[in-house]
Amino acid sequence: MDGKFYTFRTLIERDTAGYHGYVPSLPGCHTRGKTIEETKRNLKDAITGYLEVAFRYGDPIPQDGGLEFIQSVTVERRKIVSRPKAFSNVKVTTA
């Protein structure tokens, strides 16, 4: 079998019914699962299905050009003496 290897960035987020998984570079490629592992399996199936349809109709395969990093922030709450404009009592610093 002649095939091409594809790699896509996937995201999994917790929601009220379990987990929601999606592929940012493949529009409409979303899935769900009760566990992270189930969602990962469902993502693999969703990506495979997306690619099979794209191949069948001759659609281009989007490339994942996204950048990913983890951003940490520290939010320090200060004592409010009077009620100034919104959020002026919050100091945000990045790590």
Strand content: 25-35%
Radius of gyration: 20 Å
Shape: elongated
Assembly classification:
single chain
Find the structural class using helix and strand composition.
alpha+beta
Mean pLDDT: 85
Second rung of CATH, namely the architecture: 2-Layer Sandwich
**Overall strand count:** 5
CATH class: Alpha Beta
**Helix share bin:** 10-25%
What is the N-to-C succession of helices and strands?
Answer: EEEHEE
| CATH fold type | Double Stranded RNA Binding Domain
Low-confidence stretches: none
Largest beta sheet: what is the strand line-up? 1-2-3
Q: Termini distance?
A: 48 Å
- The number of helical elements comes to 1
Largest sheet data: 3 strands, antiparallel
Please indicate the count of domains: 1
Describe this structure in words.
The protein has one helix spanning 36-57; strands at 11-15, 18-22, 30-33, 73-77, 90-94. The chain is elongated. The chain contains 1 helix and 5 strands; from the N terminus they run βββαββ. A 3-stranded antiparallel β-sheet has the order 1-2-3, covered by helices on one side. It has a single domain, classed as 2-Layer Sandwich (Double Stranded RNA Binding Domain), CATH 3.30.160. The chain is 23% helix and 25% strand. The mean pLDDT is 85. By secondary structure, the chain is of the alpha+beta class.
Question: How is the topology of this model organized?
Answer:
Blueprint: E1 11-15, E2 18-22, E3 30-33, H1 36-57, E4 73-77, E5 90-94
Antiparallel strand pairs: 1-2, 2-3, 4-5
Please give a quick description of this structure:
The protein is α+β, with helices and mostly antiparallel strands. Helix content is 23%, strand content 25%. The longest helix is centred in the middle third of the chain and has 22 residues, at 36-57.
